[in-house]
Amino acid sequence: MRSPAKVILLSVVAILMVGIIPAAAADYTALGIDAGQDISLTVHRAEDGSVRKLFNDHRMPNTGTPSEIAGRFLADNALTLFDMEAVADKAGTVRFGDAILVDVRTTTTSSGHHVWKQATINGVPVHNGYVVTHLTFDGQVLFVTNDIGSSTFNLSADKATLDRETALDRAMSLIGGDGVTRAAPRAELVVLRAEDGDHQSWDVIGLCRRLKLQR
Fold first, then answer.
1. Lower CB density within 10 Å: C or N end of the chain?
2. Where are the alpha helices (DSSP H) in 58-205?
3. CA gap 22, 171 in Å, rounded
4. What is the mean pLDDT of residues 106-115?
5. What is the number of H-type helices and E-type strands within the chain?
């Protein structure tokens, strides 16, 4: 028969062992986060020095629509993400410098919501200039990916020399052949970022090849 002292000691050891069993971690592998990864305030920068990805280390549930939550988070962390301050309105639109981030779409997967916002300059969308905020169903922001590049825009002040119809005609002549299309082609004005600066260009969509024609 065990002594009372040994029974008490064994009970304390059992309690301690139970207490150190870690809770099951949420599975965010679908979002590109490995199981057990330490999600601290980690910033991944691109070659130009801009922030490419920002992990959130203060995750907590938030109220509001996914777009609203994303907008608040981007504005609160704008100095880190964009090297300048930003403000967000109730609809989730974010303004910083010469740029405005507007909602493009929100997608939902088994891991949570993904809010896509696109940068615009004077109402013209930046080509592939997306900022995507990934959050859980209870509003915890996990991380942000930033494809804008430098937050400082140097848009060419050259006057427009190409209109929409001319852009479509020029695109058709560049492809050659009979100009067969998969759909009726259309031209959208975009801001195209290049090594020599930012330019307004026509993004011709619907051709067998997608072309960017500078204005």
1. N
2. 66-76, 78-82, 164-175
3. 60
4. 96
5. 4, 11
111 CB neighbour count, 10 Å cutoff: 19
CA distance 123 to 191: 10
Where exactly are the structural domains of the chain? 35-146, 164-214
Distance CA 172, CA 166 (A): 10
Length of the chain in terms of residues written:
215
Cα dihedral sign, 101-103-108-113: positive
199: nearest Cα among 142, 155, 153: 155
CATH architecture of the domain formed by 35-146 = Roll (3.10)
**Sign of the torsion formed by the C-alpha atoms of 138, 148, 100 and 75:** positive
What the block records as the tokens of 11 is 């009970």
Alpha helices in 107-212 (DSSP H): 164-175
Distance CA 141, CA 33 (A): 13
Hunting for tokens 């590109």 — which residue is that?
32
Residue 51 · residue 80 · CB < 8 Å: yes
Half-sphere exposure of 1 (CA within 13 A, CB side): 2
Phi, psi for 13 (deg, rounded to 5): -60, -40
- Residue 134, both tokens: 């990934």
The answer, as to whether pTM is greater than 0.85, is: no
Mean pLDDT calculated for residue range 24-31: 48
Q: Are strands 112-121 and 181-194 parallel, antiparallel or unpaired?
A: unpaired
